[in-house]
Amino acid sequence: MKKLILTTALLLPTALAAQPSSQVAWTADELNFVKAGNPQKGQELAKNCGGCHGESGISTMPGTPSLAGQLPTYLYKQLRDYADGSRDNPMMSGPAKSLSKQDAADLAAWFSSRPPAFKSRSPMVYEQAEKLVTQGSNDRILPPCEVCHGGNGQGQEMDTPALAGQNAEYLVTTLKAFKTGSRHNDIYSRMRLIAEALSEDEINELGFFYQNVNK
Ligand code: HEC
Ligand code: HEC
């Protein structure tokens, strides 16, 4: 019995580490399912989200992300991740758990069809952020952000989100969460590995840089 407990204890961390970061797998069926989401139904359901995310998906609360114009596949994946605990947040797990897969696809269709948030370009220059976005960092083997997130922060199929115009405070919070690992729903640890290599100062600058990018 003692031996069994010990073995279990030793195996547990490995089992946890091997847990997939997300239950969403981008099969052709899953992609078609999300593509077929019904925006009219999504609009109805979105009444439950407007209090925090803004009626048309443009949030005015600093820690709450805008959803307007975001990739539907990305929105869908996040809702599924919150629902099964792959992404953990006390504000979102309640709303997400009450949604069916169909609801999530309908909401994704609705919010992705809304015009994205535009923030006027600030006169500030974000030198180190711009360098990370366009060149990355050779010393740290960091690829440029734009390789995945696009030259205008517009995101990329399937699950690389748009960052352009997103609230800086939210971007900073979520990058820090990737850095510490408290957000760990990125498939293949793509964002955790990157955020780990960034300094807090760079993260702050990157947040404001992307808030001021127009898609
Ligand atoms: C009580 C406020 C609140 C309500 C209601 C709420 N949200 Fe959220 N939502 C948040 C906050 C705060 C976050 C950021 C949480 C985090 O850092 O993980 C978030 C994150 C998200 C994200 C992740 C966005 C990203 O860029 O990664 C999606 C998608 C989302 N919410 C969709 C919805 C939908 C759809 C509804 C309605 C069914 C909803 N939310 C209702 C507060 C709320
Ligand atoms: C190898 C591709 C890749 C590179 C390079 C990359 N990202 Fe990402 N990023 C992703 C993916 C994929 C996700 C979505 C993770 C998930 O499924 O939750 C993501 C998510 C994010 C998010 C969360 C957005 C939200 O709405 O919650 C932020 C912020 C972010 N990346 C910023 C950056 C920055 C800044 C850089 C450059 C320093 C960067 N990324 C480089 C692939 C990449």
From TrEMBL:
Binding site for heme c 1: C49, C52, H53, M92
GO molecular function, one term: electron transfer activity
PROSITE patterns: CYTC (PS51007)
Protein name: Cytochrome C
GO CC entries: periplasmic space
Keyword field: Electron transport, Heme, Iron, Metal-binding, Periplasm, Signal, Transport
Lineage, uppermost ranks: Bacteria, Pseudomonadati, Pseudomonadota, Gammaproteobacteria, Methylococcales
A Pfam family the protein falls into: Cytochrom_C
Cellular localization per UniProt: Periplasm
Keyword Transport attributed: yes
PANTHER family per record: CBB3-TYPE CYTOCHROME C OXIDASE SUBUNIT FIXP, CYTOCHROME C4
Coiled-coil region(s): none
Keyword Electron transport (UniProt): yes
Residues annotated for heme c 2 binding in this entry: C145, C148, H149, M191
Post-translational modification as stated in the protein's UniProt record: Binds 2 heme c groups covalently per subunit.
Leader peptide range in chain numbering: 1-17
Provenance organism: Methylomonas koyamae
Domain Cytochrome c: 37-115, 131-214
